[in-house]
Amino acid sequence: MDKTTELKNLHKKWKEECQCELKKTATQAVPGDGSPNAEIVFIGEAPGKSEDEQGRPFVGAAGKFLAEMLELINLKKEDVYITNVVKYRPPNNRDPLPEEKSLCREWLLGELKIIQPKLIIFLGRHAMNNFFPELKISGAHGKLLIKPFKGMSTKYFFPLYHPAAALYDGSMRETLKDDFKKIPKVLQEIDKRGKN
Predict the structure, then answer these.
(1) Nearest Cα to 39, choosing from 152, 118, 149, 120?
(2) How many other C-beta atoms can be found within 10 angstroms of the C-beta atom of residue 91?
(3) What is the span of the domain harbouring residue 62?
(4) 3-state SS of 105-145?
(5) Backbone angles phi, psi at 188, to 5 degrees
(6) How many domains does the chain have?
(7) Host H or E run for residue 175
(8) What is the DSSP secondary-structure string of 12-78?
(9) Tell me, what CATH number does 107's domain have?
(10) Which residue in 32, 135, 167, 196 is a FRET match for 120, CA 20 to 30 A apart?
């Protein structure tokens, strides 16, 4: 079975089985989207209003900004895979609660298992804290983190500020762009270290 079909089946399964309370208030699930053969997976926090309406991640203002930054390093949204920690929009865009994150976790891990990216990029602290609960985004952004996780082929992680936060804060926007420009070097560094 190819990865596209595997992902379709995964999304179908979890749309039915996910027990997340947000399901009751959201319009629909927002599974990950992009290339099933991507070297890079971006993980955001949760869908917003536009994502909830369209059923696709990062299609609003933050998504446009993400697309601009991908162009900086000669990539398109279609070249990468973009998903969220939580697959349903929290009411009024509030932060997802710990139990909501944990109820959507197997869905996210399923996506990562199928794609087996070379690098996982966290967009914001919620995505990062899902894997590295002890870290602060202000100290970790723009740095390569290396940590093996049980059942995951990827052990390379790169935290960034969330594009939505950077939209409202000019200085953060520059930092995010600078960090983004490091991604090709980070991929070279991973290649040097070899897959394992």
Answers:
(1) 118
(2) 10
(3) 3-193
(4) HHHHHHHHHHHCCCEEEEECHHHHHHHCCCCCHHHHCCCCE
(5) -65, -40
(6) 1
(7) helix 170-181
(8) HHHHHH---GGGGTSSS----EE-TT-SEEEEES---HHHHHHTSSS-SHHHHHHHHHHHHTT--GG
(9) 3.40.470.10
(10) 167
Does the CA dihedral 148-160-15-37 come out positive or negative?
negative
Structure-block tokens of residue 25 = 């208030």
Amino acid at 49: K
Answering whether pTM is above 0.90, one says: yes
Q: Which residue has the tokens 């059923």?
A: 55
Q: Which position has the token pair 């409202």?
A: 168
Alpha carbon distances (Å) from 3 to 91, 149, 157, 163? 32, 21, 22, 28
Per-residue tens of pLDDT for the chain, all 196 residues: 899 999 999 999 999 999 999 999 999 999 999 999 999 999 999 999 999 999 999 999 999 999 999 999 999 999 999 999 999 999 998 999 999 999 999 999 999 999 999 999 999 999 999 999 999 999 999 999 999 998 899 999 999 999 988 888 888 999 999 999 999 999 999 999 875 5
